[in-house]
Structures are given as C-alpha cells and as structure tokens.
Amino acid sequence: MRKLLIPIQGDFVAQRFDLAREIIIVTYDKNTIVGAPKTIIMNKASDEELCQMIVEENITDVVCGGIEEPHYNFLIWKKVTVLDSIIGGWQEAIDTMIAGTLKRGMILVSKHEERLIL
Known about the structure:
Elements: E1 2-9, E2 12-13, E3 22-29, E4 32-33, E5 38-41, H1 47-56, E6 61-63, H2 69-77, E7 81-83, H3 90-98, H4 111-117
Parallel strand pairs: 1-6, 6-7
Antiparallel strand pairs: 1-2, 1-3, 3-4, 3-5
C-alpha cells in the first residue's frame, strides 16, 4: 500500500511546493485507489509544515511542481519518492502515478484539453 501527496492549486498541481495551501492525499495499491482521497487545507503555506505532514502521514510518494533542493533532499532522505517538475491537472497526475507511468518533468494534458488541442 502506498500514499501519494500532491500540493494542489485549483484543478492543477501547485507550481511551487513551498507555496501550496491545499493538499490532496490518495492511498493506492496495485493501480487502484483505496478509500476516498483526502483534501487538506492548511492555514498558511509552509514548506516545513508540509514536510512534517509528509512524515507524520507516512507518505510514500510526492508529486509536485517546483521544490527547493533542501526539501527535496530531506524527503529523499526520509525515503519518500519525489516526482517534481510536474505540470498539469492533479487528477491526471493521480491517474498517471497510479498507472505507474508518471515521470519527473512530465506535462500532463487533461482529456478536455486534448479535445481542444485536436
């Protein structure tokens, strides 16, 4: 069983880890979401509180936009898989992560945007 945390802003992965005030946590196992996703709204953006939450919640995976090197290194040291530089919708990030195909630096296009582009 794995736990994924994504800092979000509206419908998208937050551009910066340290400025996010809204978080979504998803538990998944073998390409399937287990239970309902949990949304957390923080009182203020705080990279230190977010790192503490990741440790306390036993998060195994973090998907985010930009993240400063000290926080990245701390999470890696805590054995958290960090996929950063992700651009796109958080729902697409969850789906791609659970499918096992999300890679660092990916730009995700929603099905709605895909239709607009075509």
